Amino acid sequence: MEAEPVPFARPFFGREEEEAVIRVLRSGWLTTGKETLAFEEEFADFLAGYAAPANSAAPALPPQKPFCLAVNSATSGLHLALAALGAGRGDLVLVPSYTFVSTAETALYLGAEPVFVDSAPGSFHMDPDALEETLTRLAAGLPAYGKRGKDFGPRGKAAAVIPVHFGGLPCPMKPILETARRFGIAVIEDAAHSFPSRTGEGCAGTLGDMGVFSFYATKTITTGEGGMVVCRDGEKAERVRTLRSHGIDRAVWNRYTDAKASWYYEVTEQGYKYNLPDILGAVGRVQLSRAETLLAMREAAARRYDEAFASEEALIIPPTGPGDARHLYPLRLDTGKLSVSRDVFIEKLRERGIGASVHFIPLHSMPYYRKRQNLQEDDFPQAMKSYRAEISLPLWPGMTEAMTERIVRMVKALIREYNK
Known about the structure:
With 420 residues, the chain is of the alpha/beta class. It has 2 domains: 15-290, Type I PLP-dependent aspartate aminotransferase-like (Major domain) (Aspartate Aminotransferase, domain 2, 3-Layer(aba) Sandwich), CATH 3.40.640.10; 292-418, Aspartate Aminotransferase, domain 1 (Alpha-Beta Complex), CATH 3.90.1150.10. It is built from 14 helices and 12 strands. The protein has helices spanning 15-27, 34-49, 74-84, 102-109, 128-139, 173-183, 234-243, 252-257, 278-289, 291-309, 342-351, 367-373, 381-389, 401-418; strands spanning 67-71, 91-96, 113-117, 157-161, 186-191, 198-199, 202-203, 210-214, 227-231, 315-316, 329-333, 390-393. The chain has a 7-stranded mixed beta sheet with strand order 1-9-8-5-4-2-3, with helices on both faces. A 3-stranded antiparallel beta sheet has the order 10-11-12. A hairpin with a 2-residue loop joins β6 (198-199) and β7.
């Protein structure tokens, strides 16, 4: 009989996470408190001390401890980062089309408008050249996409760019940062996939004005739901801290536990309910202590895939570096060499018990954004090309060698079966 199905993702928990949850339950304090505050501090220490890989071409910069603010999701974190940078009604936020919807929708929360940027050829990342072209059009007062006339697309002031470190593979930050500085706009890194990715300049997520990490159930470390906003600027960090808790000037933990505890507080601006509870913070602390081990597990499985697929002409394996987080394993199918589409290929894998997926469906092709911005699929050809070829294989800590061998065997069998 064939083995049990291999799910696309599965979290790695042990007794330590269970004990952490029980500790919080028994403490009598369940909302944001000392566990989450400790998680923030430990996460900041980790980022500051996480050196560049030994074989990196660029030397690591001296570590600088960032401010870290825990939130209930990376989506919340992106919203708060944009708010802290002052993005608002009429502003434009440049985002890759090739990303999850939260990267774009958080601009809409503030009355701003997302402007899509195509992927670099053969890449899952924002194209720095396309970013510069779009910003140049906007600076000249032209429509953002420059294709369908005077009234097409959003127009206004570019306030920020949000590059995405897709799949744990750091995007080309140097040209993006240079372009953003030249046009006077802020950079928020969508680092939802990238913990703990290292570059020669520092950790992905710490290179721009702000960065946002995710602790969703499929991520390298997880709290089930949750995220972390990271920045170097103390004033922006303080604003995020206030905004995440209703715009109140004093945290609940401080109001109830300080030596000068008081019921009195003030609402200093419109805020949100985005804080991370202590139960999740406690789980995050344990997961953070396992980060190196969890990453090594992912790397081992990814290496087995790399070695097995390197000689397959119908497959393009992801280009990776020594410090990448390996959140996803995004294969590209050369469908020109196969007699079936990518979608059918995935269904055949699922019929054989392999939980494959796709990352991502480009946002400009989604009904909401097509209608809102009068877009067509061919407006961003590189994003569509990557999307139509991409297939994400299972990659999670705890995968056995037998599991990866089975997946490899199934993928190769389908290639032989449907080879033209």
